[in-house]
Amino acid sequence: MTRTILAALTALVVAAVAIAQNPPANVRPRASDLGLKVGILPTGPVDAISDVAGVEVGHMTIIRGSDVRTGVTAILPHAGNLFREKVPGAVLVGNAFGKLAGSTQVNELGEIETPILLTSTLSVPRAADALIDYMLALPGNEDVESVNPLVGETNDGYLNDVRGRHITREDVFAAIKKAKTGSVEEGSVGAGTGTVAFGFKGGIGTSSRRLPPKLGGYTVGVLVQTNFGGVLTMAGAPVGRELGRYYLREELQQEGRATDRGEGSVMVVIATDAPVDARNLKRLAARAMLGLGRTGAAGSNGSGDYVIAFSTSLQMRIRSEDNGSTRKIEVLANEGMSPLFLAVIEATEEAVYNSLLRATTITGRGHTVEALPIEKITAILRKYGAIK
After folding, report:
1. Are the beta carbons of 29 and 357 closer than 8 angstroms?
2. Pick the residue with more confidence: 252 or 97?
3. Chain segment 348-357, per-residue pLDDT in tens
4. What's the pTM?
5. Is residue 4 domain-resident?
6. Is residue 217 part of a domain?
7. Can you give the residue range of the structural domain that contains 292?
8. Active site includes 313?
9. Among 45, 125, 319, 388, which one is least packed by beta carbons within 10 Å?
């Protein structure tokens, strides 16, 4: 009985620590909650990548002891067997200081055949291995002998014991199984648990844009894993400068130790229901870099900046049972891409803001990274006319 009580008390303490380190995301606002309007296009119903019908997102957040602050985020283009119903896809490399597994086959064939995983840098091989296990075990894949797992990362080593490679097969399976449509949890969750952006707590953020019916009525959704530096700008307001925390500040003022070295990485995942082929998906992915630029990203030497884009359009799916037979597929023409380009720029920008605004202060490995101070942010945005 004593052991049972002790075990229960220990579990309560562990749970309390986890909640303190990672309180529910809904206690902090999103950009829209502050009245911040990014761009001109309307958002989807939940302003998330899951506004693209069928797209699911799941997180596995791992917080243990004083040094483990990491996780896995899974993005599923659809809930079916992706190996049997592949989706058109492309990968854009902004700066290749990273460990993105599976990109070469995606760009060679223009197809994505597994869920997309985001995680910690040194956990990419383990996550990829677990993803292969998951795909091979799916009903209908009994004869599969080649799977291309698509796994991206950013380095959470400042707050997390990255060398410990704490991601397990069970964690990967859990993130995939937790994937759902609807609202997406943001901030210090999943692959964003231990990340840092602009000198503040980064994390997972998402947003969407919907084109008007005259332009096809298509939806574009973006999800980001932010872990990079620069001079934070929000809707034109010089937030980083006003807060006195930005890349090169100490060097310019010849004082102190750098609070933001401009290093780090970002993963951007784009989904659309527009019938876009792999070639134009890569062009779409390139526009995410413009969205990052609007936020003040530095794109440093040590930044791994990658964009993964895919289309969920039913007419674009590549079904294995077609056996290479010729099909007439009508894709969106080049001249129809421009509105989608703008949608990606706006959604990427807002997703970055949401990753920061939703993130909570995290302590790990003896370091504490503070969340953006909401009251100060609100005052700065008002000062520069970004919100009323």
Report:
1. yes
2. 97
3. 999 999 999 9
4. 0.91
5. no
6. yes
7. 23-383
8. no
9. 388
| Total tally of structural domains belonging to the chain | 1
59 assigned to some structural domain: yes
Query: What are the pLDDT digits (tens) for 130-142?
Result: 999 999 999 999 9
Is pLDDT above 50 for 7?
no
Residue 65: per-residue pLDDT:
97
On whether residue 189 sits in a domain, the answer given is: yes
Catalytic residue among 120, 123, 265, 311: 265
Tokens of 56: 């699911």
User: Residue 14 is encoded by which pair of tokens?
Assistant: 């562990």
Let me know if 265 is a catalytic residue. Answer: yes
Report pLDDT for 261. Answer: 63
Residue among 207, 300, 305, 311 flagged as catalytic: 305
E strands within the chain? 56-64, 68-76, 85-96, 111-112, 116-120, 150-154, 196-197, 200-201, 204-210, 219-227, 265-272, 304-311, 318-319, 362-364, 367-369
Single out the catalytic residue among 303, 311, 313, 355: 303
Instruction: Look up the CATH number of the domain holding residue 104.
Output: 3.60.70.12
